What we know:
By secondary structure, this protein is mainly α. Helices cover about 75% and strands about 0% of the residues. Pfam families: TetR_N (PF00440).
Amino acid sequence: MTDGVGADDRAAGGRSAERRRELIRAAAQVFVADGYANCGVADIVAALGVGHGTFYNYFTSKRDVLDAVVDRGFELIRERIVDDALGRSADLDEFFDRYRRIVDRLHELVRQEPELIRFVVFEAPSIDPVLIDRLLGVFGQFGDVAAEFLASGVRRGDLPGAVDLEVAGEAIGSILLASAVFPLHGPATAEDLAAPLVDFLRSGIGGPVGAEH
């Protein structure tokens, strides 16, 4: 009997989690379509076809769901860009191969959740400047991993000691952030600009693409 109750509880918990995700998606769509300042809880529940009571079962206010929208966006971005294997690359070529795959995963996320990512990257920081620091912090963590890998390359003698590791790490994180913006402007832009940007970065850190190190 205990197992049956546990299964029921898990099913109920799953439905509750899904309803919360639905409210977050609806809020993101409404915020993007109408602007955060121009909409309210009534617009969010109307978009999803539920009552106010359902909304307040999960969130206390429009600001509360805003934080959930931003958290969800950051979570999805972090899942695509945080790759533990990145820092364990054997050499610079493998590092940038992994980096390009991360860029591709980020582009796929933007294609899957365009409204959410557009809101998190462009709209949310204008609502609360603190969110700018949070957004930059996500990509900054990625840059820290990259800088540590580059530092190991310098120690091995694979990279020149003159490489400014802090600047290089920031550049890697910044280009990843920039590449996330490309798919929001059209499907061709991501393919046309992402690869040259990665090659440009690769060339600036390790010499011309395809050169011996």
